Each structure stands twice: as C-alpha cells, then as structure tokens.
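Translate structure to sequence.
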C-alpha cells in the first residue's frame, strides 16, 4: 500500500477528532493480562486529564469484513449492520487509539483481526491500476499505543502480533507513539505482579494523553 494522503477534508465527520482515547481489547479471556494492561493504560490517559473509553471485542457482536466493497461507494460500512456500528463513531471522534491483544498462534486474536479488517471502510481508492488510496483518518494528528502479550519468553514466539496491529494502523494514518511487548505471561492477571510493566503501561497512557492534547 501507498502512504496515506489524508483526503478527508471533504467529509466533515472526519475534520476535527477530539482529545480523547478509545481503547480496544482483543482478548477472549475476561479479567486477564490484556484486560489488566488496557485498564492501566486507560488510567494513565485519565491521569493526563483526557477522557478514555474501553471496549472488549469479546463483548461485541460483530462479523468480519465480507468484502462486499459497498464502503468504496458509500464511504461507510453498510454491508453489515452489527456491533461495529457502535464503535465507528467513537473511533472517528477520538484522536487516540489503544489496541491490546494476546498472541494467538504467532499473531493477534481473531477478534482483533476482524476489528482491524472492518476499518477498511475508512479507505478511499482511485480508479487507476494499481489503485492509489488514501485514508479518511489520516492527516489529523491521530496517535496510537499498541500492546502485545505472549505466554512464551521469546520475541520469535510472539510472531507478528505487534506488526499485525502496527502496519494497518499506521496505514490508516495513526502515529504509533509507543508499544509494549510483554512476555512469559499466562496466569490470569499475573501482570499485576510485574511492577515495572504496570508502571510502563500507565506511563504510555499518560504519554498518549499528552500526544492527543497537542
């Protein structure tokens, strides 16, 4: 893909995202390490006096992208009417984004993958081959923080988890201001015992709050 060009000025809905943050949790396990880290980052954002809302994808009834391509013409995801309709306005309105996913088979979870794929509706394409494209979320100072959690203690075992979030989110026009890779965790909420990791997660939230406030 090309670099996003930010051809979003024609759509007033995308013109002025607010200094607020949306956090998305991709873990299927309630109350686990991913949830704990997302909560810590959100607390850091609020510590920086910026509003933060979190959503756990396991609680959302939504389908993966079906490739209907209706969004190319209508500029919205109209092929599916489900829980993502609740998230789209929040994503559009918020300048900050947090994605947290455990590692499943060297990658992000199926929930997180489906969520990212459903952000396809924010792209615009021209009619030339190969098709040029731009993101309606680009050029607005949007910032993001990414977190990956792995049971094993090797970066190789984490596989593509961070990259699977970073590449598409950057393509949409977000600047990644921080990433956190946490290893050797499986027991539920065990990360609470890792003081440095918890401090880092909170600090990332504070940093994100500052970044979206500029």
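Result:
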């Amino acid at each position: 893909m090309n670099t996003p060009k930010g051809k979003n000025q024609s759509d007033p809905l995308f013109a002025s995202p607010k200094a607020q943050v949306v956090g998305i949790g991709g873990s299927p396990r309630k109350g686990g390490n991913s949830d704990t880290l997302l909560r810590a980052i959100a607390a850091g954002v609020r510590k920086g006096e910026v509003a933060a809302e979190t959503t756990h994808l396991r609680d959302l009834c939504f389908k993966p992208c079906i490739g209907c391509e209706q969004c190319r013409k209508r500029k919205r995801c109209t092929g599916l009417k489900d829980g993502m309709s609740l998230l789209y306005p929040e994503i559009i309105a918020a300048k900050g984004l947090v994605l947290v996913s455990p590692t499943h088979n060297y990658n992000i979870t199926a929930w997180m993958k489906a969520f990212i794929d459903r952000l396809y509706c924010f792209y615009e394409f021209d009619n030339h081959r190969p098709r040029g494209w731009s993101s309606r979320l680009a050029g607005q100072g949007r910032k993001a923080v990414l977190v990956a959690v792995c049971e094993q203690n090797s970066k190789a075992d984490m596989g593509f988890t961070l990259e699977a979030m970073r590449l598409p989110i950057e393509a949409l026009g977000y600047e990644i201001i921080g990433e956190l890779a946490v290893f050797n965790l499986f027991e539920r909420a065990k990360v609470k015992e890792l003081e440095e990791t918890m401090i880092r997660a909170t600090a990332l939230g504070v940093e994100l709050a500052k970044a979206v406030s500029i």
